[in-house]
Amino acid sequence: MDNRPYITCLELIEFLHIYLDGELPPDRVVEFERHLSVCDSCVHYLSTYKETISLGKAVCRDPDAPVGAEVPEELVAAILSARRGAS
Amino acid sequence: MTAEGRKERGSEQELVLLLQSGDELAFERLVREQGGRLLAVARRFLRDEEEARDAVQEGFLSAYRALDRFDQGSRLSTWLHRIVINACLMRLRSRRRRPEEPIEDFLPRFQDDGHQVRHPTPEWEGSAETLLAQSQTRAIVREAIDRLPDSYRGVLLLRDIEELSTEEAARSLGVTENAVKIRLHRARQALRGLLEPHFRRTASC
Q: By three-state DSSP, how is residue B200 classified?
């Protein structure tokens, strides 16, 4: 029976980004996965952390302002006037 | 490169030559084509309409001044995008410090022994894909990103949205790569914490 102590939730969450980037040393990966096999809370933390990244990307990359999106006329006028001033 | 890509590149090279020769109509065309998209980017970084417009204007002016140095191997849109982001970052840096919401409130809490048994993380109602099918999700996520303090929102946008490498983000922000990694992790954690009350699975009877 494996009596080694588990790493804590704090250790896991503190270094989660390094784990996800694949930059943890192999022995640490084993410890992370051992903790995840017994801790539902950290499993949920890991999955919701990943969903958060996906949600941010999806929302900020909405094609609500593609190339050619409307630009306020006052801004166009201000930019053109500033350009003339800089010529 | 496809035939269409070659044609596009060809017309972009023509546009660059016109711009470099000082053609005002070409410049106006560039502003109209790219301005709206760049304004959306600046709004995300600065959360202030007036400042976002100023940053876009500064970006176009910087681009105008640097047109002679534009590398024909780059895409004009990518080049402008970077210039406007730099204008936003300069503004974020020089902005007078506004009172920021403490980020610690949205980070996980632990017991003294380092576990979170008393404050377990709940599951969410579904994956990002499922949540995005709900009408209010986009507004909730946008609002949560806007609530992040400037220094965290900036790094999150640069790394997760603009997809700059850690090295590029560190250079843009004038901080170490390690600082970028830590700040990004904190920003994602805080965003997760802000979203949790909206998306957590509620106990059913």
A: strand
Instruction: Quote the pLDDT of residue B205.
Output: 43
Distances (CA, A) of B131 to A60, A65, B195, B203, B204: 15, 22, 11, 18, 18
ipTM: 0.85
Instruction: Provide the residue range defining the domain that includes B77.
Output: 3-94
Using CA coordinates, name the residue in chain A closest to B31: A76
Contacts of B44 in chain A (CB under 8 A): 60
Residue B72 DSSP one-character state: T
Task: Identify whether B150 is part of a domain.
Answer: yes
Say how far apart CA B190 and CA B147 lie, in whole Å. 10
Q: Indicate the number of domains in chain B.
A: 2
- The residue ranges of chain B whose pLDDT is under 70 are 1-10, 96-101, 117-118, 203-205
Parse chain A into domains and list their residue ranges: 9-86
Is B204 within a domain?
no
Cβ distance of A59 and B28 shorter than 8 Å? no
Query: Could you say which residues from 152 to 181 on chain B have a Cβ atom under 8 Å away from some Cβ of chain A?
Result: 156-157, 160-161, 181
Q: Which residues of chain B make contact with A79, given a CB cutoff of 8 A?
A: 31, 35, 56-57, 60-61
